[in-house]
From TrEMBL:
The lineage of its organism: Bacteria, Pseudomonadati, Pseudomonadota, Gammaproteobacteria, Chromatiales. The keyword Cell membrane does not apply. The modification N6-(pyridoxal phosphate)lysine is found at K675. Its EC number is 2.4.1.1. Belongs to the glycogen phosphorylase family. One of its GO terms (cellular component) is cytoplasm. Keywords: Carbohydrate metabolism, Glycogen metabolism, Glycosyltransferase, Pyridoxal phosphate, Transferase. GO terms for biological process: glycogen catabolic process. It catalyses: [(1->4)-alpha-D-glucosyl](n) + phosphate = [(1->4)-alpha-D-glucosyl](n-1) + alpha-D-glucose 1-phosphate. NCBIfam families: P_ylase. This is Alpha-1,4 glucan phosphorylase. Its cofactor is pyridoxal 5'-phosphate. It is an enzyme of class 2 (transferase).
Amino acid sequence: MNTVVQSDLLSGHEHTRTGLSQAALKQAFIDNLFYLQGRFPEVATPHDFYMAAAYTLRDRLLDRWVKTARSYKHSQARTVCYLSAEFLLGPHLVNNLINLGIMDTARAAGEELGLDLDAIVQEEEEPGLGNGGLGRLAACYLDSLATLEIPAIGYGIRYEFGIFDQTIENGWQVEHTDAWLRNGNPWEIYRPKLRFPVKFGGHTQQYDDDGHLRIRWIPDLVIEGRAYDTPILGYGVNNANLLRLWSAHATQSFNFQSFNTGDYYGAVRAKVEAETISKILYPNDEPEAGKELRLKQQYFFVSCSLQDMLRLQFNTTGSVEKFHEKYSVQLNDTHPAVAVAELMRLLIDDYKMTWDPAWEITRHTFGYTNHTLLPEALETWSVELFGRILPRPLEIVYEINRCFLDEVRMRFLGDESRVARMSIIDETQGRRVRMAHLATVGSFAVNGVAAMHSELVKSTILKDFHDLWPEKFHNVTNGVTPRRFIVAANPRLATLLTERLGSDAWVRDLSLLRSLEAHADDTGLHADWQAVKTAAKEDLSNWLGKHAGVTPDPASLFDVQAKRIHEYKRQHLNVLHIVTLYQRLKANPHLDLPPRTFIFGGKAAPGYFMAKLIIKLINSVAEVINRDPQINGTLRVAFMPDFSVKNGQRLYPAADLSEQISLAGKEASGTGNMKFSMNGALTIGTLDGANVEIREEVGDENFFLFGLTAEQAQRHQAQGYRPWEFRHESEELRSALDLIDSGLFSHGDKELFRPLTNSLIQYDPFMVLADYEHYVSRQSEVGHAWRDREHWNRMSILNVARMGKFSSDRSIRDYCEQIWKVQPAPADV
Ligand code: GPK
């Protein structure tokens, strides 16, 4: 039984419609089953039960949401708007049960009806409206904003198809469309009255407006954005914030026009074209696709969101002059950076302001968060494309740039090369709009997502901007929500923590876990701790048996790497270690290695050949090692298909070792590293991203560090890195690479993995070979440490005890204080 989620804060409202008592929940569930699904319990399907449960919860959220909105309105609270092209929410039902504090009550109500809550929960299809870290971060931040009672709105796109579902066939990734809306989405509410026009294409013209020279944009397409709202409830509070996602539709008038001229097919085509804008999430994690539809998506959701905010501000105060006092708008990476030009356009063209006051508002409205330094991920758009799709915003970008470059010239007299470097328009490779520059120029604050990353932002990609405006730059280290990643994912651990700490207050204040330090040597705790871990490993093992064809021994060390597949994250370094252990065991069958299960999870961008080949390699190595009788289970390899929020929740609790092995300087922060550590996994990792801060918190003696530092890596590269020399110098590395090339893992095909091994030996852009030896020797120490289980448990307990910093509540507090300057506004219900 999960008792940590009980909260008495919300009781006392016992009317049946939205009450939280067992009787009220049960009655509401039966009513919803009947009135919304048209079913009696006797004939209902598991999905009907899920829908009835979801509606039962949604009613309770609506109650709080309406009251929250009223509270915010009365207090005229300053509001955070989080603009993000991705929100990777994960299943709602469990999270809402936890945040409402009714997990146990709901379970009991279900039992009375002969229903198993866990089975109902499993019916939910998660909204996969994001690719990975960036999208999941946005979802964690929504949870923390509501929990901290901060007035906030999340704005994004209601993709009809989210991130693809992944299966593994013959070792390869196969993508399937994610039709998450096919059975309806009980958590959203369509707002038919909230619709905004968004223009595309066409041209601009000047006109005389009562003596004022103004610009009119005559588009050749107008699309309508429609609002779908999802309530986001905080934990143990009454505040429920708003996530507003836009869906694209053809405008009525546009349809009628074509229809009246007899062009029925034309009207339908226009409708289809309009609706493709919110059809599908681009499945690329870091590299930018640079596709026209992607730019349309960005502009579409940004324009709708800003029109929505301006409308609210105008309706409540009669003007938009204090817009920046009412709203703090955060740009989640550069995907919504066109907002800088769009807010200017709306203020000038629609609200008839002049340039200077409009610019004052704009540059006091936005904050920009950078999430990557990888050059291939920095967004730029060709001026030709940008101008063809968004002619009026492009004119505004030019004017912003003209004013900005004058400022640079004034400050750095005669430094024209600096002017060229800083320009929003890159003139060096065709003419391109640099979105990071637009975001930086148009924002009052710029931040990176971990201490080291924020320093690198200042010293590398935005160095010139830091020279100009040092005070604009901040760091806010990422965090993750303990509600989802401990309470929901690992209820056994949550219960143990609550028992040991004597209260569940840690769920709201993760720094309270620190008091576990005092119990780190308590053998009673060690036994419970290990029992919790083993139970999670048994669950995962059963799941993998059904879905991955491997049933690992829960007594083995679970060594897990779960994240997007990318060369910079270096899943292939992990594979080289596995192959090395395999060779050692083959050479010496009596070698005393502790049994290990290597578990991978992650999706590859469908067009990223090398990442897909890495998946094939993992599965090929798995096939050989798992079947080799000589290995006899000492080593096992499993690939968890379809890594998602839901599947991540199965993985984090079961991991003993967390692989955070990116080349230093490449992973902006990482957030999986935090999720694993919070669930008691030890980390083997490089000095990259938030690993640096995790190690600082947990202590060097509780962290397996290896690898080059960012500086060393940088220096090596500058001096001409020669990966083949590392191959020559290490016998084990050479034979591991040779074994892959021998065809052993590919049914004799010596060419299959050649693109990968060749790339490593000849270029190795992420210095896998340079870090191999140190990695493998650290891994041996992991093996030794695992043998002393008391000591391992102690390290695991200390990891959890010292994770307070990595709650997204801390991150959101940092944003509120350093950047947004917003205060909590508790909703009174
Ligand atoms: C960064 F630039 C991007 C991107 O397009 N997508 C994405 O998920 C990630 N990220 C970083 O790679 C992680 O290091 C980081 O923790 C995460 O964003 C959240 O900040």
